[in-house]
Amino acid sequence: MKVLESRAEIVFDYYNRRIRVMDFTGPFEEISGTLEALAKAEELGKIIVYTPPEKRHGPETCGYMEEGIIRGYYTRKDCHIFSSYPVFSCYPQNSRRISFHEEKEEQIVKNCLRKDRKAGKLPQKPVDSRRNGSWKKQKEKIPFPEDYTLRPAVQADASAMASIYCQGFQFYPTPLHMESYLLKTMYSNVLYLLVEKQGKIVSLASAEMDSENGSAEITDCLTVPSERGKGLIKELIVALEKELSARNFLSAYTLCRASSYGINTAFASLGYAYTGRLVNNCRIGRGFEDMNIWCKMLK
Q1: Which of the four pLDDT bands, split at 50, 70 and 90, describes residue 132?
Q2: What's the rounded Cα separation, in Å, for the pair 66 and 287?
Q3: 282 has which bridge partners?
Q4: How confident is the model at residue 122, as a pLDDT?
Q5: Which band of pLDDT confidence, cut at 50, 70 and 90, is reported for residue 299?
């Protein structure tokens, strides 16, 4: 009997109907068939594999498609993201593989990059690294009007934050509408920043921090409708970058909605590089949406 040499760290994401392979050892061919069988048994329409450059040949030889790269994901080493779309009864035409808004999303990226070049934007110079958080030293530099305040979220904000996220997202890959989830992540690996106007929260963003690899995902960006168009998200992103740099993080990235011109423009204008698109990757809004990858080295 042949003993399999391969092992994999797998996440079953039922909400987004996908399997994520976060790491694997040994020949990928030995686990590829098992992944397909699991996906079909659980009716999960997408398999995603995160892998460093030296392992990328495994998914490639098994027919997986490379959809994007996260720069500096593994302590300055890139992460290659490969995807496969199993065919079963719920997807008779393999529709999850098809991007239904590809032309629009391609135009958004082109417009963002063109606008950025015309403006002559360059990646921002990172702040000097410090071992401890730098919030107290940085907060005075935020150029906000008097009635706006940018600050870290605290436990007392969780209820209001959950309410805003619930109103802003009909569906979302993580349960931001649950106060308990916000509290749990707030005191583990997620840094939440918010903007208040006259004491009411009007904009939020977070950084999901991977301290082992020195990378962080900037995510959960939302501004209430009445305050959009004022650049609040950009200020939150800049503040998150400064705090991450002060904590010695090496890189930041985001997976943002490919159909949203505003959020893609914000990251492009702050020196992030576009590195790919994950097709029908998560449930946001009215169904599965494509997500663009934008990356930036902080040091």
Answers
A1: very low
A2: 23
A3: 289
A4: 43
A5: confident
Question: Do 169 and 178 form a contact (C-beta atoms < 8 A)?
Answer: no
Structure tokens at 292: 């663009």
pTM, two decimals, is 0.88
d(CA 152, CA 242): 13
pLDDT of 288 over the 50 cut: yes
The percentage of residues in the chain with a pLDDT greater than 90, rounded to a whole number, is 79
List domains and CATH numbers for the chain. Answer: 7-97 (3.40.630.30), 102-297 (3.40.630.30)
CB atoms within 10 A of CB 175: 15
Rounded CA-CA distance 89/71 in Å is 36
The rounded distance, in Å, linking the Cα atoms of 243 and 248 is 9
- Burial label, 33 (beta-carbon count in 10 A; 0-12, 13-18, 19+): exposed
Reported as half-sphere exposure (CB side, CA atoms, 13 A), residue 282 has a value of 18
Q: Could you tell me if 293 and 70 are in contact, meaning their C-beta atoms sit under 8 angstroms apart? A: yes
Residue 128 in tokens = 């000097």
Q: At what angle do helices 102-119 and 261-269 cross, to 10 degrees?
A: 30
What is the distance between the alpha carbons of residues 182 and 162, in angstroms, rounded to a whole number? 7
* Gap between the Cα atoms of 215 and 77, Å rounded: 10
pLDDT tens-digit series, residues 191-228: 999 999 999 999 999 999 999 999 999 999 999 999 99
Alpha-carbon torsion (154, 159, 164, 169), positive or negative: positive
DSSP symbols for 105-132? HHHHHHHHHHHHHHHT--PPPPPPP-SS
